[in-house]
Structure formats: structure tokens, C-alpha cells
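Re: the request from the purification team.
They wanted to know what the chain is likely to look like in 3D before they choose a buffer screen. I agreed to run a prediction and write the result into the notebook, where they can find it.
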Amino acid sequence: MATTTNQPSQILFQWKFWTAVFVVLLLWIIPLVRCLRYVKTALENYTGAIHDQNDLEYGYELLFAYFLCFTLSSGMVYFAFRFQRVSLWLCLGIPLFAVVDVIRIKPEEVVVLIPSMNPFRPIRWNLLALAIAGLIIWLPRYFHGIARRN
């Protein structure tokens, strides 16, 4: 079963691609806005105490994690458009789960003793999805090359 691939320059000019990236952005807007509010509050209440510094570091880690998750999810959308496989679109369910998990847990709430979520947890879900997508793309090419050599 041969699948067609789009050229990278063609994908960037497709409105469907940008619509899908916009949907991914809309999903990450809710946690991102909450995290920005959390960091703003942590900066306003910063007195130099150790727990204030921990809150600020946790907020910055969350911001970095959310930005990286948005980037990885957008990359998954790019791969799905580039290789045009349904299985790659199904892999986007894992980053969707990560967004819903972040929205449900609300890690941006005030940290009393222990944060409610590891800030890099959604990154792990996105990296898992990217690894599965990489296997979906690479395995058929690998086995096709072995079959051609035999």
C-alpha cells in the first residue's frame, strides 16, 4: 500500500494545515492563560522567601512545558499532513489527552506543599505520541527496504 506524501513547502500553504494548528493552539490556550495568571500572581507576591521562589520556578517550568507541548502537537499535525496516514491522526489523541488532563488537574493553582502535577508530565505524553508516530512512519519504510533486499 503506497501512501502519497506532500512536499513540505506545499503543506505550509494549505488552509487545512493551519486550521488544524489553530485547533491545537485553541486547546492549549486555556492552560497557557491560567499559567500566565499564575506566574503574574507569583511575581506580584514575590518577597524573596523560598516558597515564593518555588512557585515562580514552577510557573516558569509550566510555561516551558506548555510551549513545548504546543510545538510537539503542531509537529504531529505536520507529520499527519505530510504522510497522510489515518494512524498518525489517531496518534493526535494522545496529546489531546494531555491537554484535557492538564485542564482537569489545574496545576496552576496555588502550591501549598506539593504541586498537584509534575510540570513535565504533558511533555512525556507528547513525546510518547511523537515516538509512536515515528514508528508508524519508519517501520513500513524499514521493512519495505528489507523485503526489497531479499
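For the purification team: The chain is about 75% helix and 0% strand.
Please add any questions underneath this entry.
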